[in-house]
Design a protein that fits this description.
By secondary structure, the chain is α+β, with helices and mostly antiparallel strands. It has a single domain, classed as 3-Layer(aba) Sandwich (Trna Endonuclease, Chain: A, domain 1). Helix content is 38%, strand content 21%. The chain has a 4-stranded mixed β-sheet. β4 and β5 form a beta hairpin.
Length: 140
């Protein structure tokens, strides 16, 4: 039988731990908890994957662990959402910068009327979803 690693936590330990968790309200379900600070971009990718799977969306994504044969500068995620919405998401850590190829694709996409959203946290991803939903619902 395994031991409970949290058995010796004080109320202060629990409060400190809970202060690092972000609870995101969900329109059609219970709140989802995420750790706000990511150290590796892969953590953010996994959080976004989880949310997309939960919503039943289709996600196109290249493997982070190996060189892919995708277009240079292509966003990390191309997400087919509900109601005909499509999201282009590029993930970066707090200090990560877009490469020249990524900047070029972002500018070219903008010229064609698309937005490549750069997100650095799951909160920014949710903000993008909310902003995008408000924008798309006002379009004819």
């Amino acid at each position: 039988m395994s031991r409970n690693p949290f058995a010796n936590w004080s109320d202060a330990d629990v409060a400190r731990h809970n202060s690092r968790i972000i609870k995101v309200p969900v329109k059609d379900g219970p709140e989802i908890a995420f750790a706000p600070k990511i150290k590796r971009e892969a953590e953010l990718h996994e959080q976004i994957f989880c949310e997309c799977r939960r919503r039943g969306w289709v996600v196109f994504h290249g493997a982070m662990s190996e060189r892919t044969h995708r277009t240079a500068g292509e966003p990390d995620f191309i997400i087919l959402c509900d109601s005909g919405r499509v999201l282009l998401i590029e993930c970066k850590t707090a200090t990560g910068k877009l490469s020249p190829d990524q900047l070029a694709i972002k500018a070219w996409a903008a010229k064609l009327g698309h937005t490549v959203h750069v997100v650095r946290s799951i909160e920014e991803f949710f903000t993008t979803l909310n902003d995008r939903h408000r924008t798309s619902s006002t379009l004819p």
